[in-house]
Amino acid sequence: MKTLGLYFSGTGNSKYCVEEFMKAINEETHLSSIEDKNVISLIKEADSIILGYPVYYSNLPLILKDFIKSNHQLWNNKQIFLIATQGMFSGDGSGYCARLLKEYGATITGGIHIKMPDNTIDVKALKKDTIKEQEIIEQAKTTAQKAAKLYMQGNAPKHGLNPASHILGLFGQRLWFSRMVKEYKDHPKINRDKCIGCNKCVSCCPMQNLSLNNDNKAIHTNKCTLCYRCVHTCPTQSIALLGKQVVHDQSTLIK
Ligand SMILES: Cc1cc2nc3c(=O)[nH]c(=O)nc-3n(C[C@H](O)[C@H](O)[C@H](O)COP(=O)(O)O)c2cc1C
Ligand code: SF4
Ligand code: SF4
To answer: Which domain holds residue 202?
Structure first.
């Protein structure tokens, strides 16, 4: 059986969790981001898929939702296990994606919610100290490994897939925040006084939302999927998204 570890990961958390899960599975395994060139052929070849992604407001990043929808024919008859990573709470971060994939003929074999450091590094209220964040990552690794073991035994966990979780996700978040992930956004905020024109944000953006202007300063359009990758990548902390400025460093957490 061919199993594909598939992910969208703005800042590395979801990739890390899928990697740890896949390492614990003793089968022929492949790993791919939805951004990779050969991802479609890898999905076609796979019998089963481990799909990892970050939860945004008990919903999916729009880039992933669009990928699932625009490739809807790929999911028919696939066995899919979901890994939803989150900073704190989603209710049904896995359930929301499960319902979408089921519409396209997939069988959901299970799902887990894994707590990882919140990647919104410009929102002070959500930040924890680095030692605490390292503990969270260690715990996430254990959770992924345990889930993989249960998955291999045919007893995969089913976090977030029941009706009670659906209600929590809906009333806890989706009803109030759905506008945040309904359309691509006119973001991020760029402090051009601090920008040194290094191009790193331009190269890493999965939406090709950034470019350099004639003054060698970063500018954006309106295609932002809120992934925070540019915010984490900028060497001069010139980019912010939900907050005003970067207040925390997560660059050394996942190696
Ligand atoms: C726009 C946005 C919305 C988020 N919403 C939630 C949320 O509703 N609940 C939660 O627990 N974490 C939330 N987070 C935190 C991320 O889900 C979490 O840090 C995730 O592990 C990031 O994964 P990645 O590094 O693979 O992108 C949000 C992050 C962003 C950027
Ligand atoms: S502009 Fe930044 S936050 Fe928005 S999609 Fe691109 S990398 Fe992600
Ligand atoms: S990564 Fe930062 S410094 Fe480099 S071009 Fe982008 S905004 Fe400017």
So the answer is: 189-240
